[in-house]
């Protein structure tokens, strides 16, 4: 098909394209603003390692640094254990189960450093930072009791989030607009492909390979 024919199809089905695109966009906006509950996230970073030992050394011990980096990986798994969640629930008197709290927690090592970033996501804006701070404290407390060594150093406390982490309404609306536009254009071309009627003299000439010598007009009574 020629480029001109593509534009003609889009122009002929422009109403369908507009309706489908706007419907997807409006639906996404309604769901993002009024249906999905906003989720807030608070982050806290801790250092995994014995800072006193490093401070007392005149030269950094490479083996110790490598050991602490491996410990970060271990503690990133430790932070999501039931014993940590149960201690957090006990300290804050939370009305949730340990499994529910574990699903709210994520831990990510920061590259090859000794930092471990702990994130807590919750629909409770006023409580999420408090939970994040307590998770770090419980990790320090429980790990010390189990390993008989304090390898968790608290740095800065988590701050209360100012805006939701998800959903992102503007991003959702933009994606829905693009998807709706592509979907509506696809439907328009599909309908055109399924329509096997002859629209005008030019199309009839292409189909039959002979010129049109006359046209019978429609006369209204």
From TrEMBL:
Q: Name one GO molecular function term.
A: protein tyrosine kinase activity
Please provide, in alphabetical order, the Gene Ontology terms of the cellular component aspect for this entry: plasma membrane
Main location as per UniProt: membrane
Q: Which residues form the Tyrosine-protein kinase G-rich domain?
A: 146-190
Places the protein is found: Cell membrane
From the record, give the transmembrane residue ranges: 14-36, 170-191
Instruction: Supply the PROSITE patterns for this chain.
Output: PROKAR_LIPOPROTEIN
What InterPro entries does the database record attribute to this sequence?
A: Bact_polysacc_biosynth/exp, GNVR, LPS_length_determ_N
A Pfam match is GNVR
Q: Where is coiled-coil annotated?
A: none
Which terms are listed as keywords in the entry? Answer: Cell membrane, Membrane, Transmembrane, Transmembrane helix
Give the membrane topology, semicolon-separated if more than one. Answer: Multi-pass membrane protein
Which part of the chain is the Polysaccharide chain length determinant N-terminal domain?
Answer: 2-92
Q: Which family does it belong to?
A: Belongs to the CpsC/CapA family.
Which PANTHER family does the record cross-reference, listed alphabetically? FERRIC ENTEROBACTIN TRANSPORT PROTEIN FEPE, TYROSINE-PROTEIN KINASE
Q: What is this protein called?
A: Capsular polysaccharide biosynthesis protein
Q: What is the scientific name of the source organism?
A: Clostridium polyendosporum
Organism ancestry: Bacteria, Bacillati, Bacillota, Clostridia, Eubacteriales
